[in-house]
């Protein structure tokens, strides 16, 4: 046997021994080679598959879409992993379907381009995920409710009847009450962890008076501290600053840190909370006077179910989940949590949150629909990131920012994204290095990643790039339509586009007030003249128009003939005018006058009603009229 034939035989044996299915096709999608595992996965023999179209292994409803995906792959062949962020299925010979993941690898054979698909059956993984989801649902519905009832009943008995029971019975009742409370906390903590890891918790961000929130948390925990004979105090030097956060989740963070500090402080000591300015952040620190954290446990302090001393933790009532929950919440808020040994003994836990800045929008996309599929855009230029966000938001996506490599890692660990877009130039590292670290995260091993760069070819030439399974390499400036098509095709998600409203008014105050009122439910395009509106109409999809009548020297009614969609249907119109007596030729127009606040509420209700109507109603051309009081 020659050296070449020996190498070929070794390669053949390796392909046959591969535990994943391997299918090689030509440029037209015809199968030229399979391995034994493919026969076992799909139930076909080798002779039945070779020479046939690979569409034979794809469920019929997906075949048309697969043709387009194959054409795009052949136009820009590169290693790609499919099945991340969406469900892919294979079709067996008997017609049954099963979930799969597919890795595509282009291979040059002379002047021909072949495609090697590595296919993995993920049925067992899906089953495990389903079992976990069912377990969490069971815990939520079958355990939490009765446990809460049992704990409340035991608490009532312990509070009102313990003194009338024998001492041994009263002690057993107190033990039962304490343990039922511990079980309730454990169940709640497990559910919180699962929801956060699944990205199911929506954070309602707002401007928060941090000083007031912490004072409230201290008062809420004084009773708990009294049980341990520990005092709580807010440091007199604490500054008064605002942060951008979800008040309920931030209160949960502070409560967990206070509870931890109280439980591990000796009786007679105090827990001190401080707020200090560390621009661009605000730091909240919680200092206890306990025994400190053992050196060999410090690296595990934020892990789930982590306990430095299981016996001591049980005595203190710990679940081992509190600090893990704190870390996940703080990172979702765009901050960081850490700890340090306190001078003189004890531990200081601290939380750094971005200080409120009214001139800078948040990195978390708060104005998008909470149910919208969420993307992460790692880009150092804020103006460019905002432009991408605004466009993709109109297409139904939510877009979070990360302006540095470290921020990208923090954000990706805190939130489950359907896809990540990465610029190659970042102030604290390079984009390829960021992708390497993203792929090292278990949650992002298969997340679709798209590179945007002024020189994408340079990134492709990086030796590290071949193993990173980058979905696409796009050149700046970003062409939005191809980007949206890529996101929809590769994630399998077609988001519901937010309704788009065109508001025409020459009063800047009214434009601003209406935009602020309607922003939570629609995208508002505000223009101050008929000329601007006519420029917008041909290039933007408009679902509804809000129109003032008096616009400088003209009338807003002059625009009505142009208010039609691209398919010719009349765009519904709401007349929102300052004038109280509006003379219109059509009897369908009936002005309504009221004060400013009520008018905005009526306008919001009218917009909601109009956008909920079926298309047939839109074509009727009926118009509503509302009249706000002068501003």
From TrEMBL:
Q: Where is the PAC domain?
A: 84-134
Q: Does the keyword Iron apply?
A: no
Task: List residues of the Histidine kinase domain.
Answer: 138-357
What Gene3D superfamilies does this protein map onto? 1.10.287.130, 3.40.50.2300, Histidine kinase-like ATPase, C-terminal domain, PAS domain
> Which residues are in the Response regulatory domain?
374-491, 500-615
The enzyme's main class, written as a single word, is transferase
- Signal peptide span: none
Q: What is this protein called?
A: histidine kinase
- Where does this protein come from, organism-wise? Bradyrhizobium ontarionense
